Amino acid sequence: MLLLFVISKIRGESSDSNVEAWEGGEGIEEIGEKWWVEEEEDDEIGIEMWGAEVSRKVPVNVNSFGAAGDGIADDTQAFLDAWQKACSLENAVFLVPEGRRYKINATRFKGPCQDKLTIEIEGTIIAPEEPALWDPKSPRNWLTFNKLTGVRFQGGGVIDGSGSKWWAASCKINKTNPCKGAPTALTIDQCSGVRVKKLNFQYSQQIHFQISRSDSVRISGVRVTAPEDSPNTDGIHITESTNVAIQNVHIGTGDDCISIVNASSNIKMKNIKCGPGHGISIGSLGKDNSIAVVTAIVLDTAIISGTTNGVRIKTWQGGSGYCRGVRFQNVKMIDVKNPIIIDQFYCDSKTPCKNQTSAVKISGVIFKNICGTSKTPEAMKFACSDTVPCSGIVLNNINLEREDGIAETYCNCAMGIDYGVVKPPADCLKSSACGGGDKVEENEEILHTEL
């Protein structure tokens, strides 16, 4: 009866309705989307558009504080001095003018600031090329904006991480090197009410743009570019954040286009172009036996092309917590190796990961209106924990094909339903609690390398 109720409820709602998080026998939890507000077509505050507002806006130009903008001199102190001034003024515009290249070392732009601050990046901000010249006090961050409220980032400029030498030193490129972190290009940390519009990120040392410990962040018109073989260069990374909207972005990198990790909820992505890269991912979650909680994630309308994964949830063995209330819908896949994948045996490690019984619980995941081509036989893969199976997986209107073979669905310990046209068939979701896949032997070691 519960299964019939779930099917009828999902069929009866439109594509913009709430996310159903069916717990596979534990009842239904509806996670509303009232938090999501379609982006208004806000006018930018660019210098050329100020007009009558010029008397109200207070421009603070980094050049006035000694920035050379020649791509050679270190402009870090000039940026900090200009920031201190802009932060102290109401209606200030922290201005990075166009037509110049500003070299900046690791810098933290601290708040809180006065109201209505605009960060207008029109020129190019570049990082030092040599890892040896990096500030050792900030090994994982380049540009960090901290404790800001109601701030707008805009201007159409470029944030360039000069990452090629960092990539060459990565253990994923040179196996003899130790594995260590590299800087994230831009981090918005402990902020609220932030808008980021029409910025360009490229060649970051690792992650391009991170939202951390923040609430109510809207990102639109952003473009992220890095080579397909650049390691760990995620496009947009969300951690410990709520009420984040990402819209009308184009991301092509060497890692996940968008990644969402622990303590994040109410995240919506809309009109996303992804490729190359590793797709759009929730996770990884549960590394080093940690607790993870991720809820209310929606991807609506995307084109994913030439990536190793399409839409993915990835967790490490040994973790705990849960990921639930997820919907991926209206997605076109073009030559994607793993279009739909849940992997609870994720192991991005030089050494094999030993089998463990605990796992992050995955439930209430809807895949709807997804079509396109798979480069591998397993167009859909649900590799779930033997002891903490996935439940409440819903497939509706799936059409994934291979140009040169038969597409298949793989299941291990995954339970759910399908309706409408579902190709390839997913009968393994309904066959048993651990349906369709061979159980892993208790002492077997599993190595799932980065997909």
TrEMBL record:
The keyword Disulfide bond does not apply. It comes from the Eukaryota. Its EC number is 3.2.1.15. Keywords: Cell wall, Cell wall biogenesis/degradation, Glycosidase, Hydrolase, Repeat, Secreted, Signal. It is found in: Secreted, Cell wall. The active site is at H278. Transmembrane segments: none annotated. It catalyses: (1,4-alpha-D-galacturonosyl)n+m + H2O = (1,4-alpha-D-galacturonosyl)n + (1,4-alpha-D-galacturonosyl)m. SUPFAM superfamilies: Pectin lyase-like. PANTHER family: PTHR31375. Belongs to the glycosyl hydrolase 28 family. This is endo-polygalacturonase. It comes from Carex littledalei.
